[in-house]
User: Fold these one by one.
Assistant:
Number 1:
Amino acid sequence: MLPLISPRSWRKHLLLMGTALGAATLSILFAIGADASIEIHRKLISDYAWIAIFIAPAGFAAMAWLSMRFFPGTEGSGIPQTIAASLSDAPEIRRQFLSLRIAISKIFLTLGGLIVGASIGREGPSVQIGASMMHTLTKFRRFGYIGTSRDLIAAGAGAGIAAAFNTPLAGIMFAIEEMCRYRTFRANGATLVSVILAGLTSLAILGNYNYFGRTAAGQTLGWPDGLWPTLAAGILGGFLGGGFARLLIASSRGLPGNVGKIARQRPIVFAALCGLGTAILGLMCGGSTYGTGYAETRAALEGNTQLPFYFMLAKMAVIWLAFAARIPGGIFAPSLAVGAGMGAIIAMILPGIPDGDQAAILVLGMGAFLAAMTQSPITAFVIVMEMTANHQMLLPLMAAAVIAHGISKSVCRVPLYYALAMPTLYRAERKQQTQENASGTDTQSI
């Protein structure tokens, strides 16, 4: 009689589950480390705020140098690299973006950036970490077919999001909407198992928490009072998010004038200057622009404070500085803080907004800005809903995200992460071709 499940099948499934648990655990440890790094920076500047003038430039320069010199493939968010790896058919190119070495170094470099006050997040690095872990399964084909390389990369990306923010539904939506934007998503076991195990691991280690806390009871927008805030968030978010994405894409292709010359010829010096700009803005804003923006956004959502009117623009500026410096770190979570700042402005401008509804408008701003910047509206409203535990805001969030997405497509025609991924992939292909040509030349000379 044949066994119900063969030993080969058992080994295959255990390998998949073990790798998914490893990816989730690594992402969660990264989250704990990120919170500790932000706290270290807070303590560094709590007594002597001016010290940021020294540690930010030095830290930015160090992170940029380490990334370029010793850990290529770790620069920036990590989402464009993951997408580039999923688009390539060459294992050699995928290894330039996804490996255990890159995952570990990405963690430490991002933590270093947070310690010195860079406005970066851990969501993009978590995507690259999860994808790197799951991509290692391609080395174990002898245990049986688990999934294609593309499916494993998408599964790891979704698991990284799910584990890092305790948002399993958003992890699945990210895998579908962002990682499989231009190809058909197949709901395979690898993706579902990875995301489910990531969510369970996050629940076991961190508990049933919400990233941005819980908005107060009753924080929602009814009909018809919620129509104007929803429209305002969708329209303003669409133009601002689309415009910001376009700025980031243009900046990735090169800066104009003398600034661009310094960035190309002396990237470490340019990174230090970006760090100096981050420190100056942080001092001008009382320290509110450092880091992810998580603490400021959470306090505003829970009604403990109000975001100042300048917060949105200042936060956009420091995100751009970290992006232009090409230090490791994501822009996802800091962009949610920008959206909250936009929501605060909407709440100030629109007449007759009760104090009890202001947090709901902040939630709308977060969803709309993120949907416009990434052009992934479903992921945007799902992740904001899960992060704030406000399911009553589902319909207004959906409406604001869809409006913002539509407007963003007219402002920025190519989605941000894909626009960043394609040049990354081309550079990797040229690098691989150069290495192959050099190897062929050496062989002929011998």
Note: The CA atoms of residues 226 and 402 lie 16 Å apart.
Number 2:
Amino acid sequence: MIGKRQIRALNKKYLNHDFPTDVITFNYTKTSGDIAISLDAVKENAKIYNTKAKDELLLYIIHGILHIIGYEDNTQKNKEKMFKKQQKIFNKII
């Protein structure tokens, strides 16, 4: 896990987006990669959504894994599909 400043730097360097985000994945194969998670985003979003920080973190981990196995959130349709799958997995774990 990293802070807002570090994830913003990764987002800018690798995705050309000059803003912080919550999760960035780096895919190496169809089933492996790295997941960078902003601990600042975990804490901030837990407050915003009135959730536990550990639940926010779990959502980000699931989100990152879904990216690694091929899910995308680059269009509204893809985003809805991905978030539905993310929530289904989250609900099974919790």
Note: The CA atoms of residues 73 and 80 lie 8 Å apart.
